[in-house]
């Protein structure tokens, strides 16, 4: 990303320093409160990607 930023003149989205800061960091997230209070029931990642791909195919003219 740093090489790309030198070419584009824009700041890189990530630097090695930022990656090192989060490397090995354990992050456990709990959605039980969202399930209980909001009725949140997430789809599996496979279902989400399939639904997104279907939407993009059906609406590709909006993105051109």
Structure description:
The structure is a single chain. With 64 residues, the protein is mainly alpha-helical. It has one domain (2-63). 55% of the residues lie in helices and 0% in strands. The longest helix is centred in the last third of the chain and has 14 residues, at 45-58. The radius of gyration is 19 Å and the shape is flat. The mean pLDDT is 89.
Quick tags:
single chain; 64 residues; mainly alpha; 4 helices
Write a compact overview of the structure shown.
The chain is mainly α and 64 residues long. It is built from four helices and no strands.
Topology:
Layout: H1 2-8, H2 16-22, H3 32-38, H4 45-58
Number of helices in the DSSP assignment: 4
Radius of gyration using CA atoms only: 19 Å
Q: Which residues sit in consecutive blocks of at least 5 with pLDDT less than 50?
A: none
Summing up helix and strand content along with how strands pair, one would put the structural category as: mainly alpha
Q: Report the major sheet.
A: none
- Give the N-terminus to C-terminus distance in angstroms: 26 Å
Q: List the secondary-structure elements in sequence, H or E.
A: HHHH
Number of DSSP strand runs? 0
Beta strand %: under 5%
How many structural domains? 1
Which term fits the overall shape?
flat
Helix residue percentage: 40-55%
Name the average pLDDT: 89
